Amino acid sequence: MILGFARRWSLISYLIAVILTLPLLAIIVQAAVPGEAIFAHLLDTVLPTYIFNTLALMLCVCIGAVVLALPAAWCIARCDFPGRQLFQWALLLPLAMPAYVVAYVYTDLLDYAGPIQRGIRAVFGWQSPQDYYFPDVRTLMGAAVMLALVLFPYIYLLARTAFMEQSSSLQHAARVMGCSPWQSFWRLSLPMARPALAVGASLVAMETAADFATVSYFSVPTLTTAVYDTWLGYGSLSAAAKLSAIMLLVIFCMIGSERFARRKQKLFQKQAELNERDRYPLSAPKAWLATFYCAGLLLLAFLLPFGVLVSYAWQYFEVSWNHEFLQYSINSLYIALLVALLTAVIAIVLMFVRRCSPRRSDLLPSRLASTGYALPGTVLAIGILVPLTYMDFTINDIYAYFDRQGPGLVLSGSIFALIFAFSIRFVAIAIGSVESSYKRISPTLDMASITMGLRPNALLRKVHLPLLRKGIFAGVLLVFIECMKELPAALLLRPVGFENLATYVFQFVSDEQLEHGALAAIVIVLVGFIPLIYLNRSLEHNT
Amino acid sequence: MSTLKIEDVHSDYQGLVILNGLSLNIQRGEIAALLGPSGCGKTTLLRAIAGLQPISAGRISINKRLLSGDEHFVPSEQREVGMIFQDYALFPHLTVADNILFGVKGLTSAERQARLTEMLALVKLDGLEKRYPHELSGGQQQRVSIARALAYEPELLLLDEPFSNIDAKVRNEMMLEIRSILKQRDVSAIFVTHSKDEAFVFADKLALFNQGAIVQYGCAEALYSAPADKYVAEFLGEGNYLAAQVVDGFTVSTPLGMLVSTAPMLFDVGHKGELLLRPEQIDIHANGQGDGLIVERRFLGSNCYYRVLVGTQGYDVRSAKNDLALGERVHLAVIPHSLVLLSPAE
């Protein structure tokens, strides 16, 4: 805190916050404007189904992810079994897989013409689909399973950390008081890990709500696909905005419940970590069961789909390694880089003001700016199109007033919209990263600097920036990767004829030709590995 | 001429009064300790002087230059005060040399080098200028922070509990060393602590805090032997408090009999109060017919502590005589001194 910190800094941070919350405001305003025919029509016909599908999907994915993640998390945190060290980080790998790629691979394997069903038919001598029952993958439940397979690592990661942080003395106490390991799991470990599970589940639910590609590929209509179709199909921005508002309502309810679950988290994290020696030594059959479970999970969620991708890429390398692939990779790279640097600068400015300003009101901008992360890509895209098209029209009207040819859709129809959207969606990551770095800088360093005559800008340059270097770098890296992966916003906002890796891969998925896009998909997956390594390492250091 | 002048300063934080009408003057070259229990506002005052914390009323000035108050506020970076922090606040990304020269401005590189050499010699860290803070011991870090605070020649040095992280064995030595550095350079300093022992060793003057105000200010001896009230008396040392009534200008009547002061007391005849007797102000003699009984004895090295029961009242006595045994009968006598009569606590 610096008394007499110049107000122009506050002004800048508020300006940034307002610009970054513009889409959210646009959606709220649009939702309040009286409805038009299309929305009323949707409301009467398909909207209830969409809402039901969205909620059902969220619930199923959460349950599925918890069921998949919890045994693995507990075994890895509390037991010793062969391969524990490996699975500890390897179970994070599925996070790098785009769900729609996994969905594609399993559809290919499991549908009527796929190898599994062909094998079954060959073994039993069946001739047609009437002869036997086989579950259809391309359903809501199928989509839920696919999403759970790639999203369970969120819960695994948080639950594992929570289990590891539970102090051994508590476990000892429970054991002394006569709890078996199994009872102590139900009576102690699980209730204490509940806040972490709630946080993980809400992350999973938010990712599910934001998912566009998987449900679109499986033709399961949800609010997200509805937003997309309403804009691209009916061309109604206002109806799309109203759907987005419903979506936001769902998301904000979730964030509220997550905050509620998190309010006691501090209590749980204060305790000393679990001692290495306090892991349960498992008997041989149990230990192999644990190994088998983790290996199976890893195989289904990552190794199998990734293996299929690699084999596609190998077979179709000649076709895939072409000018388009290189061009779209470069597109992805430079947009991601630009956004990563931009968000880093924004994060530094906002957090610097937050740290130095003596005014309580200056806590707000960084919080406001972080709300963008809660907006699913499609919703964000609509929220951006509303103000940008308005501005485009205004610009062209001004040109027309002077009898000049207007520049067209300079904002909404260019990569500006894309960069704007990505920045809003991912600035929260950069802010979080810079914020946690700032927490490690003792406030007395600031006091020492300014008592030695440093002005605020010099404080930022000479003290904060050198010490924040790591946090800034981590933020840049994470934002970069998220930008490489983000699909729905890119689909809606890309200028005509512009593709990046994600849209390119999705194009092949929807055309049932992933073979040709496998190389691009592998690039996305490999880039996605980087944050996992970073994430795992930072957790290892903390715990 | 006074270096620091604090007049009727108030400060509150979220409706909580932290400083409540506080005034203090510090002379040039003087080291003052702000002493008090934690949460009494002493660190707040220190930060207010440095311009790191707002004040809601009052004035703070250094060398007649108004820093805070009367709608006027000089930012911290223009106050020219040095500050030494409890955690030293050394910049982890800078070497010892860069840390020390951090606040030094407007010198040629040769002059900077000379200043650095001088500072390193002063704090006895010659040869360590290329090290990073994490490569130093706690005491060395402490000395770097002192060199850093003195290198830019501030008007006033503020020390925020600088010795609390130092090992008890070397603490005294460290304090004396730093005190001599400050005295050598004639620097005025304010020093925050909650330990009376640190304050006695390090400071020239003590300001005893209670709930956001200074209860008493003066040199250590004055506060110890003539405390303004029971709070001060208790904070600075052990004591026996006897019900007493003034008989005449020099005499009071107490459970230990009539006691005569070596200096006149400014109370009316008949005034009732509590007489403070420090444990070392009571003399103890073995006496088979004495009315005192030793019920507790602790050997403390250079002296011995006794708990003596006279009738129903217990007395704490500290004496160089260490040959008295538990259960022995003794006689207590008050060593003549200027008696301190306190108003009874409410």
UniProtKB/TrEMBL annotation, chain A:
<feature type="transmembrane region" description="Helical">
    <location>
        <begin position="287"/>
        <end position="314"/>
    </location>
</feature>
<feature type="transmembrane region" description="Helical">
    <location>
        <begin position="471"/>
        <end position="496"/>
    </location>
</feature>
<keyword id="KW-0472">Membrane</keyword>
<feature type="transmembrane region" description="Helical">
    <location>
        <begin position="334"/>
        <end position="353"/>
    </location>
</feature>
<dbReference type="InterPro" id="IPR035906">
    <property type="entry name" value="MetI-like_sf"/>
</dbReference>
<keyword id="KW-0812">Transmembrane</keyword>
<feature type="transmembrane region" description="Helical">
    <location>
        <begin position="231"/>
        <end position="256"/>
    </location>
</feature>
<feature type="transmembrane region" description="Helical">
    <location>
        <begin position="410"/>
        <end position="431"/>
    </location>
</feature>
<keyword id="KW-1133">Transmembrane helix</keyword>
<protein>
    <submittedName>
        <fullName>Iron ABC transporter permease</fullName>
    </submittedName>
</protein>
<feature type="transmembrane region" description="Helical">
    <location>
        <begin position="140"/>
        <end position="159"/>
    </location>
</feature>
<dbReference type="Pfam" id="PF00528">
    <property type="entry name" value="BPD_transp_1"/>
</dbReference>
<keyword id="KW-1003">Cell membrane</keyword>
<feature type="transmembrane region" description="Helical">
    <location>
        <begin position="196"/>
        <end position="219"/>
    </location>
</feature>
<dbReference type="InterPro" id="IPR000515">
    <property type="entry name" value="MetI-like"/>
</dbReference>
<feature type="domain" description="ABC transmembrane type-1">
    <location>
        <begin position="51"/>
        <end position="255"/>
    </location>
</feature>
<comment type="similarity">
    <text>Belongs to the binding-protein-dependent transport system permease family.</text>
</comment>
<feature type="transmembrane region" description="Helical">
    <location>
        <begin position="51"/>
        <end position="74"/>
    </location>
</feature>
<keyword id="KW-0813">Transport</keyword>
<feature type="domain" description="ABC transmembrane type-1">
    <location>
        <begin position="329"/>
        <end position="535"/>
    </location>
</feature>
<feature type="transmembrane region" description="Helical">
    <location>
        <begin position="86"/>
        <end position="106"/>
    </location>
</feature>
<feature type="transmembrane region" description="Helical">
    <location>
        <begin position="373"/>
        <end position="390"/>
    </location>
</feature>
From TrEMBL, chain B:
<keyword id="KW-0813">Transport</keyword>
<keyword id="KW-0408">Iron</keyword>
<dbReference type="InterPro" id="IPR050093">
    <property type="entry name" value="ABC_SmlMolc_Importer"/>
</dbReference>
<dbReference type="InterPro" id="IPR003439">
    <property type="entry name" value="ABC_transporter-like_ATP-bd"/>
</dbReference>
<keyword id="KW-0406">Ion transport</keyword>
<feature type="domain" description="ABC transporter">
    <location>
        <begin position="4"/>
        <end position="236"/>
    </location>
</feature>
<keyword id="KW-0410">Iron transport</keyword>
<dbReference type="InterPro" id="IPR027417">
    <property type="entry name" value="P-loop_NTPase"/>
</dbReference>
<keyword id="KW-0067">ATP-binding</keyword>
<keyword id="KW-1003">Cell membrane</keyword>
<dbReference type="InterPro" id="IPR017871">
    <property type="entry name" value="ABC_transporter-like_CS"/>
</dbReference>
<protein>
    <submittedName>
        <fullName>ABC transporter</fullName>
    </submittedName>
</protein>
<dbReference type="Pfam" id="PF08402">
    <property type="entry name" value="TOBE_2"/>
</dbReference>
<dbReference type="InterPro" id="IPR015853">
    <property type="entry name" value="ABC_transpr_FbpC"/>
</dbReference>
<dbReference type="InterPro" id="IPR013611">
    <property type="entry name" value="Transp-assoc_OB_typ2"/>
</dbReference>
<dbReference type="Pfam" id="PF00005">
    <property type="entry name" value="ABC_tran"/>
</dbReference>
<keyword id="KW-0547">Nucleotide-binding</keyword>
<dbReference type="InterPro" id="IPR008995">
    <property type="entry name" value="Mo/tungstate-bd_C_term_dom"/>
</dbReference>
<dbReference type="InterPro" id="IPR003593">
    <property type="entry name" value="AAA+_ATPase"/>
</dbReference>
<keyword id="KW-0472">Membrane</keyword>
